[in-house]
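G., the chain you wanted modeled:
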Amino acid sequence: MASFTLILYEAPYSKDRALTALRFATTCDLEGHSVRIWLFENGVYLAKKGQKPAQGLVNYGQMLQDLLKGGIEVKACVVCAEARGLSETELIEGVKLATVHDLVEWTVNSDKVIPF
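Predicted structure as tokens:
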């Protein structure tokens, strides 16, 4: 099986990139692959607690929670989160703030790195 690191740059609900990444992560997990998610730039908003999308939209926060419950590791760039006024207490439980050093380690130890 392969190991993937997904790097998400886009905020949820602004484009479909975050949804595509979450669907890809879910499929990787279902197929037995290892997958980790790194939230960068506006992608850190994906981990914000209390998301209430408009009727008919997918709840990205719930999708992320489901992935976390399944054992997928999710980290958010601490510099990006702080620049946007987000603290770790405002993030979905299980999402950890981390530095780019962690991302380097993930990319070195992944078979594939995919930006979204």
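The mean pLDDT is 96.

Shout if anything looks off.
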